[in-house]
Amino acid sequence: MSRLLLVVVLMSALVLSACGATATAGTKIGSLEVSGVWARPSTGGSGGMHGDSGATMNGAAYLQVRNTGSTADRLIKATSDIAEMVELHTVVREGDVMKMEPVEAIDVPANGEAILKPGGFHIMLLGLKQELKVGEKFTITLQFEQAGTVEVEAEVRSE
Amino acid sequence: MLLLGLLSACGTYTFHGTVLDPPSTAPDFTLTDHNGQPWSLSQQRGKVVLLFFGFTSCPDICPTAMSTMSGVHRKLGKDAEHIQVVFVTLDPERDTQERLAGYTTGFNPTFMGLYGTQAELDTVIKAYGVTAIRRELPNSGLQYTIDHSPFIYVIDQQGIMRELLQDGIPIDDMVSDIRYLVRNGGA
Hints:
The complex is a heterodimer.
Chain A: H1 2-19, E1 27-29, E2 32-39, E3 59-67, E4 73-79, E5 83-94, E6 97-102, E7 106-108, E8 113-116, E9 122-128, E10 137-144, E11 148-156
Chain B: H1 2-10, E1 18-25, E2 30-33, E3 38-40, E4 48-54, H2 61-76, E5 83-89, H3 97-107, E6 112-115, H4 118-127, E7 132-136, E8 144-148, E9 152-155, E10 160-165, H5 171-183
Parallel strand pairs in B: 4-5, 5-6
Antiparallel strand pairs in B: 1-10, 2-3, 2-6, 4-9, 7-8, 9-10
Helix pairs in contact in B: 2-5
């Protein structure tokens, strides 16, 4: 009986964490904690950058990294099997023009955080190999200069 | 609610975007829609048109704006029957008809993607004062990007350009503006 109860409690917890944007537990590596990893659902198909349909789409993933340590770190690379290429980008606004720029790294200040969000820093997923559907999850591997490499799970949702 | 009532009683409504004063007729244009049919702005009278310029390879700004408009559409409920969201590509080289169709309808089945030759698009871009600058990205698999303005042009049912919206304005405020235009015609 108690086991059944435990299962119910666990399932409710899962459901709850799936619904809340900020409720997802973070992934820790060293003094860093990565949380709130998400990507928009893709539109318009997939099949690789050189697919016949010509309808391959790109995507972007967003997350937060909190650094509780006294040493600054940098996110220097991201990879994922879901895309042919993964790059770190930012968006710069110059007057009334939005410019997207690849960046070498994203700073995670000591006792601070890096926030990747729409309209700013993002992990660009180039040439999605499969559709990203709401509710699905996929893995992104993040490489930090100091803390090393960590795998995080991104949730696909519309906002 | 009371405040809203007072405002509407006075006949003035304060828009949340950049209001064009005085409002003028949005430049008419004809491009090709994602079904391969000619699409003219002047044929949209009776609908509030939300016009956005972008490119489908754009991973952040464009999907954010499209997703916002998808949210506006959903929140408008039945009033959404009187709006038309339009995405004009700034990247005719990569954005084929098929690609545009998949992209725009992925956000909402009623959204329309438009394309044309570079010359046709240039005319529209110029008429709307859109900035669109192709820039090579040697360090990116994207190869090139298009720096562009982030505005959503809001055109009322009479074809008058009323305001420019952009991300950062709360979605409920956008919904309020569009609903006002839907319910108050072109007046």
